[in-house]
Here is the input.
Amino acid sequence: MIPTTSTSTVDTGTTPPGKHTLRLVHLFTGRRPARALLLSPALVAATTWLLFSLQTALAGVGRHQIRTFDIGYLIPLLVLTVLGGRIAGVLTLVLSAAASAYVLSAPHFSFTVTSSRDRIEILLLMLVGCAVVTVAGVFHDALREMADALMEARLENQIRSVAGSVPGIGRLHSCTVEKAGLDYHVALSVGVCQASASCSPDQLPVDIERALRRANPMITDTHIRIVP
Here is the structure.
């Protein structure tokens, strides 16, 4: 039998969370972390432009150059770590420190940082950023586990509906689901309807498997046990 990580009885009548809740959780779990990695340079560039514009405006008001704080980089850092995980967070932090040194620090548009204050601010950005990546990474993992649990609940409800509609099925006794990468392995224990004695018990597992895979391509392996 397929080893399982979560077990539940599908005929309990429990209604899983709706589609909108599932989509909302998946939005914050970075199921496609490549998107966060691609978004990282764009958000860092936009943040750098805003901070540099603010720095230029403040410098124009006073008689000397005013250095803006690098705390603005923590916003995209937090967002992208929650969306894409720690890898996206580390990439955003490195890009933010490089942008701060190249654009915001004097002399501008040079990686040579001559001001001690600028060096300290970049160092503080790296230290605080590491803490943000650590905490937001834990939050990302928690949301990802929540999304997996919601997906399994929705999948079990779908299995109950699809398998129960196969002719000859009397009752679904149990259903166990194992997540394997992006796919799911399903084990079912079903009873045969006495009124459908003409249905072959050997054919029922084949019919159920075809119906499940047709309804959800993420189900790649099934183990079906027929209970008399």
Q: What stands out?
A: The CA atoms of residues 6 and 203 lie 27 Å apart. Helices lie at 19-27, 33-61, 74-84, 86-104, 116-164, 204-215. Residues 116-164 form the longest helix (49 residues).
